[in-house]
Amino acid sequence: MSKHHTKRESFAIGSIRVRPGSSKATELPITRLVTGAEISLPIRVVHGKQDGPTVWVNAAIHGDEVVGVEVIREVLASLSPKEFRGTLIAVPIVNVHGFLAGDRYLPDRRDLNRSFPGSARGSLAGRIAHLFLREVVAKCEVGIDLHTAADRRTNLPQVRADLDDPRTRELASAFAPPVMLHSEIRDGSLRHIAGERGARVLLVESGAPLRFDDWAIDPCVAGVRRVLAALDMIDPFEKEPPTPAVECRGSGWVRARRTGILRLDAHLGQQVVRGERLGALYDSFGKTLRAVYADRDGVIIGHTEAPLVNSGDAVVHIASIVGPPPAEPADLVPDLTSDPTNGLLS
Ligand SMILES: [Zn+2]
């Protein structure tokens, strides 16, 4: 790679061109609101002075998953276009309608992450998917898709990816989340279609919807920057190598076996063994109705935050660790305490 290459071309996206060594924002028109206001996809491109890969990072494909919006803001603030190698396309809010409404879905209740590849004349979700593929994904070799848990759930920071693909595995390892989980492709997801078109995609899960928690944001900011460093787009920035990710394969939800008030003693990142007590269900006077037990050995990668659960509700998500469980640290995330005032809505 030539570091003194000075004739790099401008980067074209939408109706703009971004000159090498600069950063520029644009908006790709999607549609109009019923009020007449234009709705568009906000994009910022960092086009490095020097050659390198083209990578996208996006958030809020589910409109209430705001953690990634902050992750992208912090990553962009850390970059210098003059020193950057390659091109980063940042799309902090893909589901603009859902984001405005604090809602996972589009106004017609479609899930944008089941609407790829979409088409120019399809549903609103399909049109956004199509636009995103054409203007962003088609130009990139690597993508990072930032998510949080769904409504009233929370997730340990984790990368879900095709760990059987050596290149994808390298990138997931470079991110160095507490957990990397080999996961199956979901039909119609961004990861599915982008993968078919040759991009390596990391799906990142971290935190809860409609909240900013530093424990969810910080590992992702570091992770995205580590991937950029692994791709030689930025210089390495850490003195010490990060703690390697614990690799998991297969996961499942422990379900409530009674309806009741849930008190969980277990926490995100905790390593558990099959049969371990994770909490209990109580009636409204405090009588224990039923304990909740781990149904497998593994690490807790997600749990409900709902205090009231119905029989059959998913309450704790446990992923199975590949190989011997890591002895140290016992907890993959030592401090999940967060300032309650950090909540966007609560
Ligand atoms: Zn999501």
Low-confidence stretches: 337-346
Name given to the CATH architecture of the largest domain: 3-Layer(aba) Sandwich
Strand content: 25-35%
The total of helices stands at 6
Measured as a percent range, the helix fraction is 10-25%
Quick structural summary:
The protein has helices at 67-78, 96-101, 124-135, 166-175, 190-196, 214-230; strands spanning 11-13, 16-18, 22-32, 38-47, 50-59, 85-91, 142-147, 153-161, 179-182, 200-207, 246-255, 260-264, 271-272, 277-282, 288-293, 298-304, 308-309, 314-321. The chain is an alpha+beta fold. It folds into 2 domains: 3-230, Aminopeptidase (3-Layer(aba) Sandwich), CATH 3.40.630.10; 252-338, OB fold (Dihydrolipoamide Acetyltransferase, E2P) (Beta Barrel), CATH 2.40.50.
Would you mind describing this structure in some detail?
Helix content is 18%, strand content 34%. The chain has helices at 67-78, 96-101, 124-135, 166-175, 190-196, 214-230, and strands at 11-13, 16-18, 22-32, 38-47, 50-59, 85-91, 142-147, 153-161, 179-182, 200-207, 246-255, 260-264, 271-272, 277-282, 288-293, 298-304, 308-309, 314-321. The strands form three sheets. It has a five-stranded mixed β-barrel with strand order 8-9-11-18-16. The protein has a four-stranded antiparallel β-sheet with strand order 15-14-12-17, with no helix packed on it. A two-stranded antiparallel ribbon has the order 1-2. It is globular, with a radius of gyration of 21 Å. The structure holds zinc ion. The site of zinc ion has 3 residues, from loops.
